[in-house]
Write a structure and sequence with these properties.
The structure is a homohexamer of 283-residue chains. Chain A has 283 residues and is an alpha/beta fold. Helix content of chain A is 31%, strand content 27%. The N and C termini of chain A lie far apart (65 Å). Strand 14 of chain A pairs antiparallel with strand 11 of chain B. Chains A, B, C, D, E, F: Keywords: Metal-binding. Chains A, B, C, D, E, F: A divalent metal cation binds at residues 66-67, 105, 230, 234.
């Protein structure tokens, strides 16, 4: 009845095939012995110290994260390196680490982007950049809202649906613009803007947007933009993947979603519309 | 008594030498005839449509921007391309465009980073990455606050000192952390973090910070991070450069700072600390 | 009844599809507004000052040239750069610039190489380097003369058929050699020599031939070579393209071929067969 | 009293040090055995079949050429390759081949460019691109004419001074322009134009000039251009190098300059200023 | 009745098509004139001085070697270079040099690897890395032994079957391991290990094996390794190719296999299992 | 009195500075926590399974190897990868792994090459490739024998002085050649041959020598070659480094040299000088 780490890995890779990952990505097992048993699996966005604390505190045998620990490959994992220290802590605690990153982004039906589309209520979501070989696979999702709304109203819906983060939600474009078709991309998805435009999106929601592409986007017709915390955009996948793993293994493993908020932003100060040295600027 | 565009360019390059620009940058005159007269100069962060409207409306003969119009080089400037259209509008209006970008960032005393350090009240600012040839030249500035304060307090000072933008100010790190030495870098300056740490900074203020470097920074000792709008971080330079040009040319040209807020973010929705599907997350 | 620049561009691209251009090339609209009307179009080989003078003098709304103005891409078009100055002059004169370069070389039936083959009287011309997808498309043309003639006689025919240039026509190979099959390539076509040999050509006519490839060619069996001015080899296309555009647009635009000889060579001194310090050389 | 090939090579390299050659060049001994005796040395511009005929006919033991035989390196020298055949013929005839190319171009006092400057009567010639380490070394030569003359007059002097070739001499620029300072570069020297301009040259004489650089040069102030046969521009060096070798070896070897004209152009047809399909063009 | 070198080359290339060679290889005729007659052909592994001595002593008109003389291409073949000296000696002796290298390795049925498989008695040999286009073509051969034997026993069979060399035969892996399926690759074939493992080989025999790949191979399940002299692994091909050529040309040429052992190792000292400073090491 | 891993690393890097390593190398701490205590250190050439067995069996806290475990960087260390498994075993056993590779090769006085020179009795050894900055540092060592001897005699001395390996010792060159000056390079040092020749060496001893460079070396004057097992050439450093570490730390750590022979070759079959299919070859 015991489940081995090898079986858990097989179940996860059955849903999030490594072959779906981008060439530059680093997915799969980072540490852990496939022959050893797994009783409890913890799901988190980021493999950081606070999450490994939780692995140790809760006695999890496996940590599944969306972000790779060692995206830049290493010649060693010494404990005086922050990432090496996590490897030591996990191995000594008998816990493995498994990463599903761009393969989870691109996977059909149960991936990161489907989960994000789901909490926002998008109807008939399909990939923004569908794979040539399978139209259900690909980066981003684009779908319809049940009811069109203003860009401002959409930003408010996003703020209510996603995990709370210090930075909240930003929008670029006319706040009164009507939004009916929505493209989303968990993580840093600014490069999907041309494809989202081609797919007829009124808005693209993603994270880590920088000044220049957003500024250039507003100079031409095309989708508005909504920026949320990277962490918040990917979090909705955690309960989906956790429940799926439990089900796929006949509930022979216990699953949990991490309770640590690993968005790094801890404080926000709003700037009211008047005062300050920019007071002389018009909108 | 008339000033030619050539003289204005010479005055600007006397303060912001093209040789200071990074290899990949594109600074200097984008359009305009150095032999023609200049009576009025407008300074702005971004060469976008709203700013060219202002050039036309105010009859300026020269637009000086911090950001390049044609950072990616082009084989033509046809008017059905958004950037080509601006070139047509400027040439037909008899106005030139001059860019001072990383040369203005790295210039001594009167550059973008000195202006930013100035509005924040930094004492004895010096480059974070000083040039080997001249220690007054380089990217970023690091200096002391007159009085140490908390990270939260510093973020509030930043919000008060910089132009108002929709996104406001974000901070990463313990909000109660004491901040005495401050590093700043106008624009996208996340790559200066190691140098800011080496310079003893308690915090690095810059813009366009993305999830992964901030998350990794919080896993090791080092500076806290403050993120502001890219536009806001560079705006303080505009009045400095405008006044300097007028003075350098004996007030024979009229100068003005653009009144258009070219930060592309138009709306922000805060997420209060409770409610939402992330309500079960602990901080 | 007015024709817009956009319609003219569409007509030209209907004959000379941009997709036919080489990867390194820079074709299409360089300046001008597709929404503005066009009454008169001037065709020339080179976008140089003398030709832009003619645009201004004749009130043309569009200049079509074979050679790109900005083959090396630029970060600006300031008027103290010779090419930027032409952009200023054209935009201020309300004239556009359109380039059809290697797409015009490779296009079927009405391209640069067909025009060159036509003035030389070649029969059944076909591409020297045909495209895999369409045998009518490709670089160079090879065809038969109505009557075989000597290489010297062919060079005389070339001199009579092409625009007069200071440098005249040069031939390499036995002047008495019989020439029946002729390959031509407008512009710098020396690299087509192996393909011309494979196509059974007795001679390759092109321009800009340099010492080493010609010297090496004479060491092995294969075609003789004839070198003409680059300008002269491409000029025959101008009336062809001009007439075609007028016809394609139902004579709603007026067309003209530039009268300026833009071959840069202005003088030639022949060396008679005796005298000089090389008098002791035998042939 | 016998001289070995090794001694001849040492004498030649004493004047034309291999270290002066460009990185991409291929100079030195191509075939021949340094231990064998040399009685007679033939100098030529090009290692072609006609010159090897002369080696065989005259019983020369060594051929010295300016141009490399194997600039593109080879995996073999089979006799069914034109260059391999020359290697077989030379080795079977007991003759070596030695190349002095860009080292002879750049060498001080007795190199290719000094010889060219000499036959044109230039006063105080110095390198156009002097080496940092030695101002007497470098590509090209620039000097004064004893009397200024028109560009046309200079072209006539060139035609009289250099070996007769079919193509003669071409000039670009105003034929009446006054020429006092002259830059020359044997071989393909068009890339020296900016340096010639910086050196104050009124004209640059070189060979293998192509349309685009000449056309662009005429659009800006700067030197006129004169184009001669590549062969003719380098030939003047042959008697200089031959005499020098004989002297350096105490006349223990017999030297001769090849009598074969290896310029590949065999015929030229002038185009008188009227007639032909370009009759309607104005100058 | 005379056979030309061209006919011999055609016969050899009929068996060992140049198109089969790797991209980086240098095969075919290195020197010799295809129009000259060939009476006697010598086959050897290496084009070295001792073998050229044999060419001269035996009056051979053609040397066929497996290894290229000029794998690194050259700008000349002067006689003071060891390889250039061989070219001079061959050309002066009227002898050609022909190379069949990776094309002979990859050729079907009569190539280097088939000959090696043959002397070892492998049954049903097929390529280890078969070409996509033809399964009989490719690097390496894998086949069965008539009777399984121990790794030690296999090494003894190899020692008996291949030419005697000073270094003998080395094996890596448990000497008592059972060997039934054998992969072989003449020359430096260590990179075929993964393909040999995939083909089910119990052992890979090749040469030039280095410490690190062998050490890593022993850390995982997979084939044992046997290392022989590079020369010995390729020698078995010589009599095969020689006989084949004679037959293909109707015995109109005389063929011979070189009697020179060109393995460079001249002495070997065994280390008995005890004594020396490593005496304290356990196995 | 306890020594931490950090102190041990500092002592090792004091002797074998990481800055001495080649750019492509991967030296330093691979796993282990610098804050934890170290009582016992084991030194070995290779980080392989048998050596980790010994770490576990002997309770060592640190393994120091010459060869890197992760020369090719990795994205993870899962236990189903042979190298990842060793990381798991070491971390779980509380043992670190430290690598000193090309820094130990190049270090002065107490490095790999000095140890090798020492066991062979070389007098006044100095680097074959000395560093520009410090003539005591560099790859290889060259020194004199107390008494000249034959190449065969030298090979016998090598066999007696180095650890016993299955492959023994091979020599290339005339066995009776006199050897007085000896160059050595632990590991794969064939590329040092030109430098060893320039240093006047009569022989170069190293490992992993391949056919082509040895064959080419025998075609020109220069050093003979001796090839030993890679493992054997580096082993002499182990006791040197172990003793030095104990001394540098005041004998506060226990040191040991691994007793496992990690040379991968397990058997050798000599080929007597007659018989076999190569019997017809002459030497």
């Amino acid at each position: 009845m015991t489940v081995t780490l090898g079986e858990v890995v097989a179940a996860l890779e059955g849903r999030y095939a490594p072959a779906l990952a981008e060439d530059w990505d680093a997915v799969g097992l980072v540490c852990g012995d496939p022959d050893e048993p797994v009783r409890r699996v913890l799901f988190a966005v980021d493999p950081v110290g606070a999450v490994v604390d939780e692995v140790v505190e809760t006695g999890a045998d496996l940590l599944v994260t969306h972000h790779p620990l060692l995206l830049t490959p290493v010649h060693g994992v010494p404990a005086d390196d922050p990432k090496g220290r996590l490897v030591h802590r996990l191995i000594r605690a008998g816990a493995g680490l498994f990463v599903a990153h761009t393969n989870a982004d691109r996977a059909p039906a149960t991936g990161v982007n489907d989960a994000l589309a789901g909490v926002l209520g998008l109807i008939d979501p399909r990939p923004v950049l569908p794979a040539a070989s399978d139209p259900r696979v690909g980066l981003g999702r684009v779908g319809r809202l049940a009811e069109p709304m203003s860009l401002r109203g959409f930003a408010e819906r996003v703020a209510a649906a996603l995990p709370v983060t210090a930075g909240g939600v930003r929008a670029a474009g006319d706040p009164d613009r009507r939004v009916a078709t929505v493209a989303v991309c968990g993580g840093s998805g600014g490069s999907l803007l041309p494809a989202a435009a081609a797919a007829g999106a009124d808005v693209l929601l993603t994270s880590d947007l920088k000044h220049h592409p957003v500024s250039e986007a507003l100079e031409v017709p095309g989708p508005a933009l909504v920026d949320v915390a990277h962490f918040a955009s990917e979090w909705p996948w955690l309960p989906v993947a956790a429940d799926l793993l439990a089900r796929d293994l006949g509930n022979r493993v216990e699953v949990a979603v991490s309770t640590r908020r690993t968005d790094p932003w801890t404080a926000h100060v709003a700037q009211p519309g008047t005062g300050g040295s920019a007071g002389r600027l018009s909108g």
